Amino acid sequence: MFSPDSSQKELTDTIWRMAYIAEYREGNNISHLERVRAYAQVLARGLGFTPREVHVLSLACQLHDIGKIAIPDSLLLKNGDFTPAEWEQVKRHTISGAEILGGSPSPILQTGEAIALTHHERWDGSGYPRGLKGEEIPLGGRLCAIVDVFDSLTTQRTYKREISVEDAHHLIIDAGDQLFDPGLVDIFDEDFDEILRAGKLRS
Q1: d(Cα 173, Cα 168) in Å, to the nearest integer?
Q2: What are the Cα distances from residue 40, in Å, to 59, 72, 77, 92, 111?
Q3: How far apart are the two ends of the chain, measured CA to CA in Å?
């Protein structure tokens, strides 16, 4: 017999496994999903979200790159620079992700749809796929942009080396009001010690 608690745990596990599909193809980087969720929890709590809202947003953030399952391996695993045509194809993972998650009655998948579509939008309008600017970008997309970039900067991949958490911290701060929501950047800065603990990183 299912209880509400067991049903919620099963939903959480299912969503995590959906997110894991894209990461599995790109080097089985399971820890990226856990860190993104942990960092998102810190920022969401800093915004004063309720525990339920923190849960929904942080879990939805794990789905940010689900659209990468639509990218061919020849591009997803490419080490060199993309041609302009290849780059346009890669950028479509945002649209593909939103299409995969779209139309669901689930608050988590609805939030995930918005995040998948907008986590590469930038505060100054320089992002993609739609060039949204400022608060035109859904809050979930603005929040996920910071935690995704921070984790990318501090994680070694086959195509790049990582940088120190201190350097990544400064890059995020310096990009406030340009690439990232300045209010969220302030929370990121104020709660940076908690960010480090959440990601089990050392300053």
Answers
A1: 9
A2: 9, 29, 26, 24, 13
A3: 47
Q: Which whole-number Å values give the CA distances from 139 to 58, 154, 202, in the listed order?
A: 12, 23, 28
Q: What are phi and psi of 177, to 5 degrees?
A: 70, 0
Please tell me the distance from the alpha carbon of residue 140 to that of residue 20, in angstroms, as a whole number: 19
Give exposure, 57-90, as e/b (b: 16+ Cβ within 10 Å).
bbbbbbbbbbbbbbbeeeebeeeeeeeeebeeeb
Instruction: For 101-155, give the DSSP string.
Output: HTT-S-HHHHHHHHHHHHTT--TTS--SSS---GGGS-HHHHHHHHHHHHHHHTS
Q: pLDDT value at position 79?
A: 81
What's the residue count for the chain? 203
Tens digits of per-residue pLDDT, 114-152?
Answer: 999 999 999 999 999 999 999 999 999 999 999 999 999
- Rounded to whole angstroms, the Cα distance separating 140 from 143 reads 5
